[in-house]
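Fill in residues.
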């Protein structure tokens, strides 16, 4: 059996603002620490490329995706099956041609304020649906890299495998 391809990083960092454009215009969005803590316990998230549901690479329920909220943000560790398509993605990440991540979420609970003509949303809780590896993220400090140097994520991943989750 071939060794899985491991990638990791931060899907978003707390208190970073992103400029979001939707069908109702533009607003600024920011997540607070703890926004996904209940959601990630459900272990029903997937990993995609560019938010395309036809390109699911991994999922939390199979142990391929490990998520953790820490003092910096929402961190992740992904084990990709070692096949041709995933090696192409892994190499793009390794070569820094793709180096960002985006999150897909629903059922957000947020506080909305207006400052001048700018609308701000402070997301306090949301249901995380997916993490997508992307070229142009809303949250610019998101990052994906090869390997994993986050000892907390490594430990959680090992525990999950030992418990056969």
């Amino acid at each position: 059996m071939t060794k899985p391809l491991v990638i990791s990083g931060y899907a978003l960092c707390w208190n970073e603002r992103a400029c979001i454009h939707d069908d109702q215009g533009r607003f600024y969005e920011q997540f607070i620490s703890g926004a996904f803590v209940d959601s990630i316990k459900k272990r029903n998230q997937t990993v995609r490329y560019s938010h395309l549901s036809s390109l699911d690479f991994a999922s939390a329920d199979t142990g391929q995706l490990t998520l953790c909220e820490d003092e910096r943000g929402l961190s992740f560790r992904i084990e990709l099956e070692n096949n041709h398509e995933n090696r192409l993605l892994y190499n793009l990440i390794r070569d820094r041609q793709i180096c960002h991540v985006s999150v897909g979420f629903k059922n957000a609970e947020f506080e909305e304020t207006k400052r001048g003509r700018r609308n701000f949303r402070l997301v306090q809780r949301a249901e995380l649906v997916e993490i997508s590896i992307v070229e142009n993220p809303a949250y610019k400090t998101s990052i994906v890299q090869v390997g994993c140097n986050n000892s907390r994520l490594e430990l959680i991943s090992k525990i999950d495998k030992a418990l056969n989750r």
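The mean pLDDT is 87.
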